[in-house]
Design a protein that fits this description.
The structure is a homodimer. In chain A, helix 1 crosses helix 2 (about 35-45). In chain A, about 35% of the residues lie in helices and about 35% in strands. Chain A is globular and about 60 Å long. Chain A has a single domain (about 5-120), classed as Aminopeptidase, CATH 3.40.630. Chain A is built from 5 helices and 6 strands. By secondary structure, chain A is an alpha+beta fold. Strand 5 (about 115-120) of chain A pairs antiparallel with strand 6 (about 135-150) of chain B, so a sheet runs across the interface.
Chain lengths: ~160, ~160
């Protein structure tokens, strides 16, 4: 394996932001990314830190990343959530995805949490197979629900009337 | 509406824990609740506070609750996640669920976040209809993935070998 994994530094946020945008394109939500490089620096490296990030590096370039933060389960207590796991196209099949996931699992185990959670698109069969091969439970009966910015505003307008 | 909504206090955690267990039974995961009343007091009321909780009260009794915390979206920045929204059986249809959700939306708006997220079981049609009537987007193509405590241990055993 000709790459290494390390904790992300501020200067990596340019490359991490690029990976975030690549992932959004893959997920057919090209225009959804409102977070900027500056936001990532502030949110990840100034107190209170809102996430923790690992990067995969090859020949001095960032070619993958895993971004995590804590959640709270009313069943299991504090848990780690993996928001994004992304490997650049040229590095697919290199083992970098597995290595990044391993780093996340070691990190979560170090925190003593009882669960690591994440989300997957149900048509992303390669990802689902990969996660299941790692022992994860893809819960096809649980769906994600979101109220977006416009939805929040509409909701508030309705209860005010 | 003969109930009121307020921010939960430590002393409410007994009733909140009872509602958490009731919700787990409904979700066919009766034995999944490992969190204790003491955990809820520590995790919700000692620094660092891991969640924020609202309760619905009727005639001095807690009859519903909504439990939230912050997450981080690499697309939208800080977001609010609604972990549990639960109304006791005798209060169903009273408007308490809507009132609790309104409180969560006002709270999230006050924090300036661009999204509120939560999760729903795909067979829970009354909940899905309720959420959609409020303008939420039930994303049936996104599934929840979990690596549980045994899964974390197995994963670590495998990478050590």
């Amino acid at each position: 394996m000709d790459f290494n994994i390390r904790v992300a530094q501020e200067r990596d946020m340019i490359a991490v932001h690029k990976l975030i945008k690549e992932l959004a394109v893959f997920e057919k939500e090209k225009h959804a990314v409102e977070v900027t490089i500056e936001d990532l620096v502030t949110d990840g490296f100034r107190e209170p830190k809102l996430f923790h990030c690992f990067v995969g590096e090859k020949e001095g370039s960032v070619v993958g990343m895993a971004l995590v933060y804590n959640r709270y389960s009313t069943w299991k207590g504090p848990v780690v959530h993996l928001e994004d796991l992304m490997v650049s196209e040229k590095m697919r099949g290199s083992g970098l995805g597995s290595a990044l996931l391993s780093e996340v699992v070691k990190y979560a185990h170090g925190l003593g949490v009882k669960r690591i959670s994440w989300e997957v698109l149900d048509w992303n069969e390669p990802a689902i197979k990969f996660y299941e091969s790692k022992g994860a439970n893809v819960m096809r009966d649980w769906d994600v629900v979101q109220l977006d910015e416009a939805g929040i505003q509409n909701f508030l307008n309705q209860i005010e009337n």
